[in-house]
Design a protein that fits this description.
The protein has 150 residues and is α+β, with helices and mostly antiparallel strands. It has 3 helices and 3 strands, in the order ααββαβ. The chain has one domain.
Length: 150
């Protein structure tokens, strides 16, 4: 075989190997980017749930701005656990997808309060959900505190 033809064939082989490797590399990179976004959102949800539980431990009557056990206007924003949870978690979280659950069994000192956040997280990479069969990813975060004031 002519040495010139051999070099041309080797260049073509390198291009095919590069294109196959690039597909795998891009797939791994996109998966890692989605995983990083999920982790970032999980940390923001943890922060929001923790802030809501902490506020409930100090003000157990103020779950939402329309809490019936509190006096009128006592629990207006920003003085309620729902507002504190949604604003502590960051603006990257779409709180319309989140379901906040507050558990305040008895508003007396020493009783536990719990805040649970359920969140549906859609993946951006279109091929990863087809491979894993999961889209959206369900994230659940909870935090609890002990009531320290009445």
């Amino acid at each position: 075989m002519n040495p010139m033809n051999r070099r041309l064939l080797e260049k073509g082989q390198s291009m095919v190997e590069f294109s196959l490797g690039l597909v795998v590399l891009l797939l791994v990179l996109c998966g890692l980017l989605d995983l990083g976004r999920v982790y970032f959102t999980f940390v923001a949800l943890e922060d929001g749930a923790g802030e809501g539980a902490l506020y409930l431990s100090l003000h157990p009557k103020c779950i939402t701005k329309d809490s019936v056990t509190a006096t009128p206007h006592e629990c207006d924003n920003p003085n309620n656990a729902e507002f504190r949870a949604k604003n502590a978690g960051g603006y990257e979280v779409d709180w319309n997808r989140a379901k906040l659950t507050f558990s305040v069994p008895a508003a007396s000192v020493g009783e536990p309060v719990k805040v649970t956040v359920d969140y549906s997280y859609p993946l951006l990479t279109p091929i990863i959900p087809r491979i894993t069969g999961v889209n959206p990813i369900k994230l659940t975060v909870s935090a609890s505190q002990i009531i320290i004031t009445e």
